[in-house]
Amino acid sequence: MHASTQPPLWSDEVVSLAVEVLRVLADPTRLQLAGLLLDEERSVSDLAQQLDRPVPGVSQHLAKLRMARLVTTRRQGNNVLYRVENDHVRQLVVDAVGHVEHLLDDVPAHHRGVEVVR
């Protein structure tokens, strides 16, 4: 299902949940985590190492992302692997960062074919 192209008149429930999703992503660490999970599954320890942050803190951020249904998990042996929930979440993160790149640069990295460091 696609979002309506008509002037928005969403229900209070939809607006409230959308605000909560955006609020969860409005944290720098959580946005970085979502970016790291766009294309592959990763463990908490891998994510903590990538971000140079303590595992317990990263785990708490992942729990918030999971509660907002922005990431999902699967168990592989003793490891829990995280990934973005679906293509809608992936597009939301890519579009948000892409929009900011356009604000900051005449020719953003994603138009120059430059690999974006996440």
TrEMBL record:
UniProt entry keywords in alphabetical sequence: DNA-binding, Transcription, Transcription regulation
Protein name (Swiss-Prot/TrEMBL): Transcriptional regulator
Domain HTH arsR-type: 10-104
Listed GO MF terms: DNA binding; DNA-binding transcription factor activity
Species of origin: Nocardioides mangrovicus
PROSITE patterns named in the record: HTH_ARSR_2
One Pfam family of this chain: HTH_5
InterPro entries linked to this entry: ArsR-like_HTH, HTH_ArsR_DNA-bd_dom, Metal_resp_trans_reg, WH-like_DNA-bd_sf, WH_DNA-bd_sf
